[in-house]
Amino acid sequence: MTVGQFQAGVSYNIIPDTARLVGTIRTFKDEVQTDIHARIKTIAEAAAMASGATAQVTILRNVPVTSNDSALTARMLPTLERVAPGRVQQSELITAGEDFAYFQRVAPGLFFFLGITPKEQVGSAPQNHSQLFFVDEKALLTGVRAMSHLAADYLSGSSQK
């Protein structure tokens, strides 16, 4: 859970009548997300009531959990390894909020990263939601090749090395 906005009051020395917190809740499983949403609502309302106040909790489910189809991933891994030999690796689980997840609800999906961070900045580069974010555009060629080969191999029923 990340609170990205906290809005309250108009002056440093006046206790505000209202406050508004806005953020994101990201999980690896839909059922965990549902549970966390219920807990946040319960905790916020109980904390407010204990202080003689009220809390109105509104949680929008903007995007579902992004989760690769394991069979499709296994099938297409040889294609990715052929396109980018020695550079394909499984990433740690991340809580990406991607609208690509809507497609994954309708058909098996494979979400992957290109590695657009310049080599000298790996581990220290600004994140993609930073105003300092930078893309090494040389990675786009790999992306076009990967997508083209994935589509061709998928449609032909092949994924041979």
Features:
161 residues; mainly alpha
Count of domain modules: 2
End-to-end distance, in Å? 41 Å
Largest sheet: 2 strands, antiparallel
> Low-confidence stretches at least 5 residues in length (pLDDT < 50)?
none
Order of helices and strands: EEHHHH
What overall geometry do the principal axes of the alpha carbons give? elongated
| Rg, Å, rounded | 22 Å
Major beta sheet, strand line-up? 1-2
**Helix content, binned percent:** 25-40%
Could you tell me the mean pLDDT? 90
Number of strands: 2
Secondary structural class? mainly alpha
Output the number of helix runs. 4
Oligomer: single chain
Strand content: 5-15%
Report on the architecture of this protein:
This protein has 161 residues and is mostly helical. The chain has two domains: 49 residues, no CATH class; 87 residues.
Question: Mind sketching the topology for me?
Answer:
Blueprint: E1 2-8, E2 19-24, H1 30-50, H2 70-83, H3 100-106, H4 139-156
Antiparallel strand pairs: 1-2
Q: Would you summarize the structure shown here?
A:
With 161 residues, the chain is mainly alpha-helical. Helix content is 37%, strand content 8%. It folds into two domains: 2-50, no CATH class; 70-156.
